[in-house]
Amino acid sequence: MADHIGERQGDVCIFASKAELFAFTADRILRLSEAVLTAVGRFVAALSGGQTPTGLYRELARPSRALDWKKIDVFLVDERIVPYEDSRSNFGMIKKTLLDAVPIPAENVHPIPVDQADPYAAARRYEEEIYRVFRAPPGAAPRFDLVLLGIGEDGHTASLFPGSPLLDETTRLAGAVPEDDAGTARITLTLPVINNAQEVIFLVTGKTKAPIVQRVIEEKDGRLPAARVRPRGGRPLFYLDNDAASKLAPPVAS
Ligand code: 6PG
After folding, report:
1. Ligand 1: which of 18, 88, 157 to mutate, judged by most atoms within 8 Å of the beta carbon?
2. Is residue 184 in some structural domain?
3. Cα 5 to Cα 140: distance, rounded to the nearest angstrom
4. Which residue of 34, 106, 117, 221 lies most exposed, with the fewest beta carbons within 10 A?
5. Average pLDDT value for residue range 201-209
6. pLDDT in tens, 176-194
7. What is the Å distance from ligand 1's center to 216 Cα?
8. Which of 18, 21, 47, 48 to mutate to test the pocket of ligand 1 (most atoms within 8 A of CB)?
9. How does residue 3 score in pLDDT terms, banded at 50, 70 and 90?
10. Within a domain: residue 202?
11. Does residue 5 register a pLDDT over 80?
12. 111-136 pLDDT, tens per residue?
């Protein structure tokens, strides 16, 4: 099962297979949701797109997981301004792998608006939606119970790319990337809201991610957006497969 190699920047768990990684992460999310629902009656998560979490979402969708979907709100961490039916759409992927398969009420699902060309206007609308659901006054950073993130090979997370002015954002909850490397506009949650979350989990797999995982976890290279994720309530969790963890130093025996 998990080889817990602990005390680095955050908690690091390494799994021999993706199946184990996804099953463990799904369990963790189920347990977290149960604890939060017992305490406050509502669980609010922000989920990432990309390839990595599709296996996790399918796992979460299994009837045996039995999350209490009526009391769970799902937001998106980031999105490309493309139709939801487009293969690049994060919402499209999460809908197909998870939301269509579970009894979540439509009003609990909060996709990022993609129906207008101006990404700045879309970011403002998304921010309003976050304030509405959290019933928070503008200016108060809402606290997501869970933010699930990935890491790109360049160290980006969400749609926060190295060198982006969005990394200096201190007040807005959602920001616009006018054009990514592929020429697509994106909307993303910003660091103030990500870092205010109760729990942040990075899910990373594959050999191509090993060098960046090493730089984020061991070097804590602050130029990398992923290394700037430091949730107020604790440290991010890094859930990795063996390949993604292959450049980390072995754990020091205690
Ligand atoms: C996206 C993401 C992005 C992603 C990383 C890792 O929409 O692409 O939000 O931050 O998590 O790029 O992506 P993979 O899981 O596909 O490697």
Report:
1. 157
2. no
3. 35
4. 106
5. 98
6. 999 999 999 999 999 999 9
7. 15
8. 48
9. very low
10. yes
11. no
12. 999 998 899 999 999 999 999 999 98
Tell me the DSSP string of 17-72.
Answer: SHHHHHHHHHHHHHHHHHHHHHHHS-EEEEE--SSTTHHHHHHHHSGGG---GGGE
Whole-number Å distance between alpha carbons of 239 and 245: 9
130 occurs within a structural domain: no
Atom of ligand 1 nearest to the CA of 149: 11
* pLDDT classification of 149: cutoffs 50, 70, 90: very high
CATH of the domain at 28: 3.40.50.1360
Residue 108 pLDDT greater than 50, yes or no: yes
Total tally of structural domains belonging to the chain: 1
* Within a domain: 124: no
CA of 152 to the centre of ligand 1 (A): 6
- Residues framing ligand 1 (Cβ under 6 A): 48-52, 77-78, 90, 150-152, 156-158
CA of 16 to the centre of ligand 1 (A): 22
Q: For residue 45, list its beta bridge partners.
A: 74, 146
CA 51–ligand 1 middle distance (angstroms): 7
Q: In the prediction, which pLDDT does 252 show?
A: 59
Answer whether 224's CB lies under 8 Å from 153's CB. no
